[in-house]
Each structure stands twice: as structure tokens, then as C-alpha cells.
């Protein structure tokens, strides 16, 4: 979903993530990942890549969002 802003995109992405985890199959998958280190690492990689895509989209908009991008990158690397 492209809302036109990094914050909007991030909010929609996070809402969808919570919705997916809250569903029956999503909850079971989440619990499985908690108990399996390799599955958890793979899931973390997917989350990381989604966030990188959101950041890249924001950077591509050429809007005055450099502070948003910088904060997101800092948070990803913590």
C-alpha cells in the first residue's frame, strides 16, 4: 500500500502485520517461529526487507522526508 508518506505506509504495514499475527493461522505460524530459531531468523529477514522497501519508496518520492528515512535506518541498525 502506498499512502504517499513513509509514516502512512509504515502504519498500514504494521496494522497488516498485527492483523496477520492475530488471525488463527498467523498466530500458529508466529508461535512456530518463536520455537524455531531458524524460522524466526527467516521471518526477521522478511520483516527487515519489507522495512527496507518502505524506506526505499519514501526515498524515491523526493519529498522532504530525509529525517524520517534517517530515523528509520538508525532504528533498523540498532
List the defining traits of the structure above.
78 residues; mainly alpha; 4 helices
What does this structure look like?
The chain has 78 residues and is an all-alpha fold. It is 82% helix and 0% strand. The chain contains four helices and no strands. Helix 1 (6-22) crosses helix 2 (24-35). The protein is globular. The chain starts with 5 loop residues before the first helix and ends with a helix. The model has no long low-confidence stretch (mean pLDDT 82).
Structure, briefly:
The protein has helices spanning 6-22, 24-35, 37-60, 66-76. With 78 residues, the chain is an all-alpha fold. The protein starts with 5 loop residues before the first helix and ends with a helix.
Large-scale geometry: globular
Helicity, in percent? Answer: over 70%
Which quaternary structure do these chains form?
A: single chain
The rounded Rg comes to: 14 Å
Q: How many helix segments?
A: 4
Structural class given helices, strands, pairing? Answer: mainly alpha
Main beta sheet strand tally, sense and closure: none
* Uncertain ranges: none
Distance between the termini: 26 Å
Amino acid at each position: 500500500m502506498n499512502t504517499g508518506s513513509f509514516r502512512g505506509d509504515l502504519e498500514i504495514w504494521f496494522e497488516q502485520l498485527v492483523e496477520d499475527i492475530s488471525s488463527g493461522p498467523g498466530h500458529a505460524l508466529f508461535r512456530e517461529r518463536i520455537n524455531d530459531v531458524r524460522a524466526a531468523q527467516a521471518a526477521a529477514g522478511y520483516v527487515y526487507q519489507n522495512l527496507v522497501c518502505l524506506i526505499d519508496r519514501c526515498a524515491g518520492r523526493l519529498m522532504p522526508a530525509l529525517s524520517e528515512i534517517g530515523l528509520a535506518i538508525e532504528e533498523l541498525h540498532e
